[in-house]
Amino acid sequence: MKSVSFVCSVIVCAQMVLPASVLAQAVPPPDTDASQLVNEEIQPISVHHAALLEHKDDPTSPDLIGDPALRGTIQPVARGLTGPCRTVFGYLPYWESSANIQWDALTHLAAFSVEVNANGTLGNDHGWPWTALVNTAHANGVKVVLSATLFNTTDLLTLMTTPAYKQAFFVNIKNKMLEGTMDGINMDFEGGGSWQAHAPAFMAELTAYMHSEVPGSEVTFAGPAVNWSNMNMPALAAGCDGIFIMGYAFAGSWSSNSGPNSPLNGGSINITDTILDEYGAVTAATPEKLILGIPYYGGHWTTTTSAARSSVVAWQGSTRFSNDQPNSQIYGRLWDATSQTPWYRWNDGANWHQVWYDDAESLSIKYALAEANDLQGVGMWALNYDGSRPELWDALRAYAVEPCCSQIVNENSVAVVNDDFDAGTSASNWNLFASSADYTADFAYDYSAVGIPSAPNSTGGSTTGLKFTVNNNDGVAQTAAVSIFPVGTGVSGDHVLKFDMWLNYNGGSGGGSGSTEFMTAGLGHGGAQVIWSGNPSSDGYMMAVSGEGGASQDYRAHDGATQLSVADGVYLAGSQDSTSSYYQSLFPSPAFESQGSPGKHWVEVEVIQSGDLLQWKLDGTVITSIVLGSPVSGLPMLGYMDPFSSIANPASENYVIYDNVRVELLPDNDCNANGVSDGCESIVAGDYNGDGSVNGLDYAWFADCFAGPEQSPAPASLTCTNRCLDVFDADFDGDIDLADYEAFTSN
Question: Is the pTM value of this prediction over 0.70?
Answer without folding.
Answer: no
